[in-house]
Automatic annotation (TrEMBL):
<keyword id="KW-0479">Metal-binding</keyword>
<dbReference type="GO" id="GO:0016491">
    <property type="term" value="F:oxidoreductase activity"/>
</dbReference>
<keyword id="KW-0560">Oxidoreductase</keyword>
<comment type="similarity">
    <text>Belongs to the iron/ascorbate-dependent oxidoreductase family.</text>
</comment>
<dbReference type="InterPro" id="IPR026992">
    <property type="entry name" value="DIOX_N"/>
</dbReference>
<protein>
    <submittedName>
        <fullName>Clavaminate synthase-like protein</fullName>
    </submittedName>
</protein>
<dbReference type="Pfam" id="PF03171">
    <property type="entry name" value="2OG-FeII_Oxy"/>
</dbReference>
<dbReference type="InterPro" id="IPR027443">
    <property type="entry name" value="IPNS-like_sf"/>
</dbReference>
<feature type="domain" description="Fe2OG dioxygenase">
    <location>
        <begin position="188"/>
        <end position="299"/>
    </location>
</feature>
<dbReference type="InterPro" id="IPR044861">
    <property type="entry name" value="IPNS-like_FE2OG_OXY"/>
</dbReference>
<dbReference type="Pfam" id="PF14226">
    <property type="entry name" value="DIOX_N"/>
</dbReference>
<dbReference type="GO" id="GO:0044283">
    <property type="term" value="P:small molecule biosynthetic process"/>
</dbReference>
<keyword id="KW-0408">Iron</keyword>
<dbReference type="GO" id="GO:0046872">
    <property type="term" value="F:metal ion binding"/>
</dbReference>
<dbReference type="InterPro" id="IPR005123">
    <property type="entry name" value="Oxoglu/Fe-dep_dioxygenase_dom"/>
</dbReference>
Length: 371
């Protein structure tokens, strides 16, 4: 918006990129400037999506239409909301997570229990895709038009492009198949998240292990879009390399696309849901807070989620199994509310058993937590 003066923010100063020799996961980088170069170019991108999704469930997109400065502006807006909202207002706009399974509003620090048994040190403010349906702290009000514009572009342009590539990759006849399940006009629980990790205690545990900030999980979403930020603390468990945890590199201006459990079910695990966690960063980045912005997409409320064997010849050829018995398949809203409600609450999440993973029931379906 050239010439127009935007409301002032409290600027968040991000940490400098780490210079330590850490092991990064190799992610495919998709150049979305090619998306409009015709059907052949789109087919090529779809093949790259297929390769990334069947191996990692994570990929990076660049040239997607949102600039690094627009991402920084959103991080600043989130930081400003956290800084300027007084504790009493945060308390009164607390998300009814346990009561209703809804994230809309503030998630205070300490709501989740980590696998170490400790409480999290992360503050979230979650905004409904349709911002009118979200609690509106006073500090957010000046930024509402900007935030809504950011959400709308992310949903209607970037997300829908990714979904058209998914449909092409799965050879589903209707390229808009997934787009129609995420209709902008209908209601769903998709949300924008501002997230601040507070590193108040930058000390290693006695055995030299790094402190866990957010336990290993797959997102409950269909797709999560992570706007890249410079602190090296997000790790993905590499399906390709003996399940090793590896750092996700920062690419300024990029979006990391993270497939969640809904995509895993749609594809009968042909497309992987990325297993990821957040840990304390390398030494040269400690003692800094980490502020970032995310968009989590889930289908419209009434969409029943099960494997798309009828729609996709690729899934039939791959021989995948249906994720749920038809009578057990949840609707999008049922799943989201049930899963949000129990995240970070149970002993399973706090890690009573050791080893790779813990399965927990969510209504008629299950979710898995990872170490
Ligand atoms: O902070 C991050 O980079 C990832 C956060 C995350 O995994 C989540 O909110 O689901
Ligand atoms: Fe996540």
């Amino acid at each position: 918006m050239p010439g127009q003066k935007l409301p002032e923010v409290d600027h968040f100063v991000p940490v400098e990129p780490s210079k330590e020799p850490i092991e990064f996961v190799e992610l495919k980088v998709l150049d979305f400037s090619k998306y409009n170069d015709g059907p052949e170019a789109r087919k090529q991108l779809a093949e790259e999506v297929r390769q990334a999704m069947t191996t990692q469930g994570f990929f990076t997109i660049i040239n997607h239409g949102i600039s690094q400065s627009e991402i920084e502006r959103q991080v600043d807006i989130g930081h400003t909301i956290f800084k300027r909202t007084p504790p009493e207002e945060k308390e009164s706009l607390k998300a009814p997570i346990v009561e209703k399974g809804s994230y809309f509003g503030f998630k205070p620090r300490g709501h989740w229990r980590l696998m170490t048994g400790k409480k999290d040190n992360i503050e979230n403010f979650n905004v409904s895709r349709d911002m009118k349906q979200t609690p509106q702290p006073t500090a957010m009000k000046p930024f509402i038009p900007e935030i809504q514009k950011f959400i709308d572009f992310t949903h209607n342009d970037i997300l829908f492009k990714i979904y058209r590539l998914f449909a092409i990759a799965l050879e589903i006849n209707d390229e808009d198949f997934f787009v129609k399940l995420h209709s902008y006009e209908k209601h769903d629980e998709s949300w924008l998240r501002y997230m601040e990790y507070y590193d108040e205690n930058p000390v290693n545990t006695a055995n030299g292990e790094k402190t866990l900030w957010l336990g290993g999980h797959q997102d409950l979403s269909a797709l999560s879009l992570l706007f890249s930020q410079p602190m090296s603390s997000l790790q993905v468990r590499d399906y390709d390399d003996d399940s090793k945890w590896k750092y996700v590199a920062h690419t300024p201006g990029a979006i990391i696309v993270n497939a969640g459990e809904i995509v895993k079910w749609w594809t009968g695990d042909y497309f992987k849901a990325a297993i990821h966690r957040v840990i304390e960063p390398p030494k040269d980045q400690r003692g800094h807070d980490r502020s970032s912005v995310f968009y989590f997409a889930v289908p419209n409320d009434d969409v029943v989620i099960n494997t798309l064997l009828e729609e996709s010849p690729v899934l039939r050829a791959a021989g995948v199994e249906r994720a749920h018995r038809p009578e057990d398949a949840p609707t999008s809203k049922e799943w989201v509310n049930a899963r949000v409600k129990m995240t970070g609450q149970k002993a399973a999440f706090a890690g009573e058993s050791s080893g790779g993973s813990v399965v927990e029931k969510v209504g008629k379906v299950t979710t898995t937590w990872f170490r």
